[in-house]
Amino acid sequence: MRLSRFFMPILKENPKEAEIVSHRLMLRSGMVRQQSAGIYTWLPLGKRVLDKVNAIIREEQNRSGAVELLMPTLQSAELWQESGRYDAYGKEMLRIKDRQDRPMLYGPTNEEMITDVFRSFIKSYRNLPLNLYHIQLKFRDEIRPRFGTMRSREFLMKDAYSFDLDREGAVHAYNRMFTAYLRTFSRMGLRAIPMRADTGPIGGDLSHEFIILADTGESEVFCHKDFLDFPIPAEDIDFNDAGALREVFDKWTSRYAATSEMHDESAFEAVADTDRVAARGIEVGHIFYFGTKYSEAMGAKVQGPDGKEHAVHMGSYGIGPTRLVPAIIEASHDENGIIWPDAIAPFGAVIVNMKSGDAACDEASESIYRALSKADLDPLYDDTDDRAGTKFATADLIGVPKQVVVGPRSVANGEVEIKDRKTGARETLTIEAAINRLTQAG
Ligand code: P5A
Description:
By secondary structure, the protein is α+β, with helices and mostly antiparallel strands. The protein has 2 domains: 336 residues, Bira Bifunctional Protein, Domain 2 (BirA Bifunctional Protein, domain 2, 2-Layer Sandwich), CATH 3.30.930; 95 residues, Rossmann fold (3-Layer(aba) Sandwich), CATH 3.40.50.800. 33% of the residues lie in helices and 28% in strands. The strands form 6 sheets. Strands 3, 7, 8, 9, 10, 11, 12, 13 and 16 form a 9-stranded mixed β-sheet that branches. The longest helix is centred in the middle third of the chain and has 21 residues. 42% of the residues are buried. The model has no long low-confidence stretch (mean pLDDT 96). The structure holds '5'-O-(N-(L-prolyl)-sulfamoyl)adenosine. The site of '5'-O-(N-(L-prolyl)-sulfamoyl)adenosine has 21 residues, from strand 8, strand 13, strand 16 and helix 10.
C-alpha cells in the first residue's frame, strides 16, 4: 500500500475526549472515528487490525470444532418473549418498530435466535455435539459508553453457542472453548486470565470471564501470581479428548482468581502474601454454561438414545474483537505510539522514504516495496512529501513492527536502515540484505 493512496487521517493534536492511552492512540493514528456516542467507524488502518484479530479468533474457533454462520443484527421481539427476556432485558436493549408496527430489536446477544435456528433443524442426539458461532455487530445501550471502542454501544462480538445431550457433554463443550480462548488471546500477545464470574442476564451456574491485567481496566480483580506464567495449550491439543481438556481446565482453575463481584476475601487471604495479585483488568471474553434455560423455554429438544425427548444443554461463549484492539494497545505501546505484536500488525513493514522526489531514494524505496509486496509482507510505503521527521513520527505512531528507512546518505552507499519498532534497535544493511532479512524473518 502506498501511503499517498491510502486513507489514514493522522491527528496532530491529542484528542481531548480520550481518557486512556488506547483511545488516544486509536484516534491519533486514524484507526477509528466516533459517529455518535458509543458508535464508531473503523477506518482502513483500524479495519486491517480488526480483520487480523477476527482471523485469529476464527482459526481457533474452527480448530476447536465450532462451525461459523451469520445471523442478522435485527431480531423479532417474539423470540425474546418466548424466552422471557424481552421484558427482563431493560433499557440496554434498543427496541425498534418496523413499518407494520411489529416490535423488533437490535440484538444485544443471540441465545434466542440460535435456539430458534437449532430447533427448526435438529431433532436427534445423533447431530450432537454442535457448536455454532458468528462474528456480528451487537448493540447495547450502555449508560456510560466510554474509552472508545473499549466500551461502546455498537460493538463486534464473536458469539458461539454449544448444544449437547447432557451436562457432561456440555461441560466438555465448555472446556473446548476455555482451551480455545487461552490459545486465541495468547496468539495476540496477551495473557488473559480466566476468572470465576457472575452470569448476569445470560443465566446459568458456571461462568468465566477472561481478563487482561491493565491499570486502565474497568474490573477490579484478585488472583494468584502463577497465572502470569502457566503454559498455554499447544496447537495440536486434541479437542475431542475430554480428559485432556479437563486437565487444562483444572490447572487453570486450581488457583484463586475472581472479579470483585465473585471475590471471597478469606479465600484470597489463604493465598500466600507474596503470591497475591490485586489489580485492575479488562474483560475480553466471557463464557457461560446455562443448561436448559433457553431450550426448555423455547422447545429445543432432541430424541436421545433412550428414545425420549430431551431439552438440550447449552452454553454461550463471547469474545469482543472491537474491545480486544484497544486492550492490545493498552498492553503494548510506548510514549511514541502503538507497538503491534507481529500477529495482528496492520502492515508487515513500513518503508520510510526520507526524501521523496530524490531519484536514488525513490528508486531504492520502490525496489524494496516491490520485493516486500512480492514476498507477501504487505508493506506500507510512505511515499508522501512529508518531512522525514513527520514520517518517522507516523511510523512510530502506527506501530508497524519493522521500519525500513531509506535516506539519501545511506542510499549513496547502496544501504538502508532497518529499525525494530519494539526494541528501537537499528541495523544498516545493503538493500538486498535488508530485503532478505525482512522476507526471511517473516
Ligand atoms: C456470550 C456470548 C454474552 O453476551 N452471549 C453470547 C454471552 N456475554 S457478554 O459477556 O455479555 O459479552 C461477551 C463479550 O463481548 C464484549 N463486550 C463488549 N465490547 C465492547 N463494548 C461493549 N459495550 C461490550 N459488551 C460486551 C466483551 O469482550 C465481552 O466479554
